[in-house]
């Protein structure tokens, strides 16, 4: 009987550790909802309509970003600023990054759909960190506020 009690106690502890590790693994994927991380970025032409109040007017319509629904968080991300740098390509474009360049962007819209990148940057913002013809690049980012 004592052996069964020890087994159950050890099994319960193991189950708790495994559950914690699984929860950590499921929440450790980076998105702009987090303070920093890596991801991908593409560019877009700023549309006057926006999911954020005055979204397309922020920064004079320049240096803007759209984010995925998870990061957008029902509009809570509107106005958040991120510092973004290109770290590599995602296609055949040779040396797609403009080395050493960072751009500060403000979240101004929601990117809806299944093909959204971590950030979809206004053309002005994308062109600061990468060659325009790269189309899509790997990035690193950090939240400014």
Automatic annotation (TrEMBL):
Any one cellular-component term (Gene Ontology): apoplast
Name this polypeptide is given: Expansin-like EG45 domain-containing protein
Signal peptide: 1-35
Superkingdom of the organism of origin: Eukaryota
Pfam families cross-referenced by the UniProt entry: DPBB_1
Gene3D superfamilies: RlpA-like domain
A GO biological process held by the record: systemic acquired resistance
Keyword terms, alphabetized: Signal
Coiled-coil stretches noted in the UniProt entry, renumbered to this chain: none
Record-linked SMART domains: DPBB_1 (SM00837)
InterPro entries assigned: EGC1/2, Expansin/allergen_DPBB_dom, RlpA-like_DPBB, RlpA-like_sf
Residue ranges occupied by any Expansin-like EG45 domain in the UniProt entry: 49-145
């Amino acid at each position: 009987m004592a052996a069964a009690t020890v087994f159950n106690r050890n099994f319960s502890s193991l189950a708790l550790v495994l559950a914690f590790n699984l929860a950590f693994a499921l929440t450790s994927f980076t998105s702009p909802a987090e303070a920093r991380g890596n991801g991908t970025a593409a560019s877009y032409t700023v549309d006057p309509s926006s999911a954020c109040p005055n979204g397309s007017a922020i920064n004079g319509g320049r240096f803007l970003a759209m984010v995925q629904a998870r990061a957008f968080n029902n509009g809570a991300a509107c106005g958040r600023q991120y510092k973004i740098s290109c770290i590599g390509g995602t296609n055949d474009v040779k040396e797609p990054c403009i080395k050493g360049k960072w751009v500060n962007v403000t979240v101004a819209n929601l990117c809806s759909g299944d093909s959204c990148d971590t950030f979809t940057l206004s053309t002005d913002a994308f062109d600061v960190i990468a060659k325009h013809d790269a189309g899509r690049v790997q990035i690193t980012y950090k939240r400014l506020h």
